[in-house]
Amino acid sequence: METFNSDPKPGRLILPLVLIGMIATTYTFINRVADNNNLEIIEESVQEEVVEEVVEETSTTSSTTTTLPENYIGYLEEITAEKLQAIELGKQVLEANQNWDEKSVTYQEAKQEFADFIEDAELFVAIVTDPGPPSEFANLVSSHEELKTIVNLVYNDTIELLAGLESSDKGEQRSAALSSFNTNLDQFIDKVEEIVATATSS
């Protein structure tokens, strides 16, 4: 009686055994060669390189523009116009004084011109004094007080100019009055420019 194998593929169990035998033989061979030849078996290690992603933050600087109130701007325009008046007054006084020095006008004509400057300066004092700055701005109020002080000095200088013209000296009093007039007028102009510059730069 014949005996039949129930497994239709008996060779499938042999192949894994052959593979295991080959691996074991290779491993034994490599270790033996390494021992006999003093070779060092180096295990290769895989190093992972970590790259850090840097995110740059871009910051933008925003500038804000401060808008001045209308009454503030109105005051700045007012004193700027007064500065121009001061410059014009200064030119007229210098011209009249030079005309008298050069004797291109008579004494009566020079006296009348110098008297007119007193009236002009008095009117200028009134223009600068009122209405003045808005009361809610303390910095403007303080600065305006300085302008009023200076413009009154200018007015006093015009009085001294006429007195110097009428003096019997050789022109020393008039020359001193003119020097003081120019100094005070320059201070007035500089102060106006300072007020405007401070307001527009803040």
Features:
mainly alpha; 202 residues
Q: Could you characterize what this model shows?
A:
The protein is mainly alpha-helical and 202 residues long. The protein has a domain at 70-201: Up-down Bundle (A middle domain of Talin 1). 68% of the residues lie in helices and 0% in strands. The protein is built from 5 helices and no strands. The longest helix has 32 residues, at 70-101. It is rod-shaped, with a radius of gyration of 51 Å. The relative contact order is 0.10. The model is unreliable at 59-64 (pLDDT under 50).
Q: What does the radius of gyration come to? A: 51 Å
The CATH architecture designation of the domain at 70-201 is: Up-down Bundle
Biggest beta-sheet profile: none
First-last Cα distance: 119 Å
Unreliable stretches: 59-64
For the secondary structure, the number of strands is 0
Blueprint of the fold:
Blueprint: H1 14-36, H2 70-101, H3 107-129, H4 138-166, H5 172-201
Helix pairs in contact: 2-3, 2-5, 3-4, 4-5
Brief digest:
With 202 residues, this protein is an all-alpha fold. It has helices spanning 14-36, 70-101, 107-129, 138-166, 172-201.
